[in-house]
Amino acid sequence: MSYLALYRKWRPKTFGDLVGQDHVVRTLKNALEKNKVSHAYLFSGVRGTGKTSTAKILSKALNCLNMVGGEPCNQCANCLKINEGSFMDIIEIDAASNRGIDEIRDLREKIKFMPVEGLVKVYIIDEVHMLTGEAFNALLKTLEEPPGHIVFILATTEPHKIPLTILSRCQKFDFHKIPNDLLIERLKLIVADSQGEIENEAIVLIAKLSGGGLRDAISLLDQCLTSYDHKITTEDVSQIAGIVDDQMIIALFKSIANKNINQVMSVYEEIKEKGKSTGQLLHDLIEGFKNLMIIKSVKDASKFIVASAETIEELKNIADMFIEDEVLAYIYSLAELESRIKYSIHPDLLLEVELIRLVGGTKKAGPKLPKITKEDEAIAEEKTPVLKEEDLVDEPTIEEAIVKKKLERSKEELSLTKIWDRFMKVINEKNKNLNAYYKEVSHKELEGNKLKVYFEDKYEFHKLRAESPENLKVAEGVLREIAGKKIQLEIFINKIEVKKEKTAEDKLTEIFGDSITYIDE
Length: 521
Description:
By secondary structure, the chain is of the alpha/beta class.
């Protein structure tokens, strides 16, 4: 007899065998017991979480001759044939390879026929999101008004690609990722049944690599048990999976924390020699820094980290060598690199350069500082508040002082512009005449809680009207409303000399002097 893969050998045969999907099991068993089975179901979730297995168990329960408590008996003629895969009334369709409208039209023709040997004819359509738009439209009418002897079970890993018209005609069940503790428990059971030996840390690593999918975990375990006759270690699992061993990652973290560039490069070269992929190493680095952040931020971090107790303890020691901001900076920097590295023809080179930068070999290019002018020196020498001795920090350079002062000035100007624009808008709503006066303001200054506005001397009338008690009260009320605090309004006239145009008399006086006599007609 040919070898049967472990994931097939351990495929669930009853609802009780399913792992980590109690919410689905409870609902389906109740529906079977109360004879309230829907005509269409949609099972969605990541791969390896039991969607197809659940569909087969539900199909078997619907056709079981001796169903008890919503569970198939696995002993009647129908159950035995279904387990052997020779039952004619359960039809499995792979939508990835049968995605066209012709296949769905053929299905619509066949569903008219009654079951041959079972109680219900069940169609299981796997990866249903792969169907074309025309195929979905052809399936829609059938799902809306199916014959009484038909049940559809649709399975997908990408439910967002399924039209809402299809979703609304199905009962939807979301299959969750299987928790690591349940995965580890099931893997230990399989190892014991297979009479193999494996370290507990290796099982934890397999569960971590599976991403919450039991099938992937069992497949990796099967490969390890087949490859090695001795007790399987984490190094063996890492070798089979093509990943970086936790100890190598820890050694790399220690080198980065110690700012030891030689050691970093030595560990990195060792990892490369073992044929580990750059993408996987980068992923492991980000995952490791994430774990360091969890350790620094959460009291009982071991609950949220999938690793052995020894590895977590080592990570805790390493976490003390970093500060939180540093860890965050590393995570963001590596995540940014991860998005760029997939388009590079030299990903290992980019990662190597980034590792050098992480240990302080180079720094990211910063903004160029401006050249210092006399005006800048004057700005930098402006008085600043006196600080207490304990508040003093390293004295900023003159370049930093200039940039800071200019930034403060630009913020003040921006704030005044914002207040004035809002002030003019509200004044216009309250008093259009007053708005007309303030439109002639030539200059304005905001000093603390005082707003000083200036009119040219030719607009003295506007100035007088604006500073009348009733108008001043309105304006200051608007300012208080906008700024959220009392602002005193002060109004001034700019003393700007205005050159008057010379009259004809002025020009004559310039030519002939003051000895001119004008004769009235």
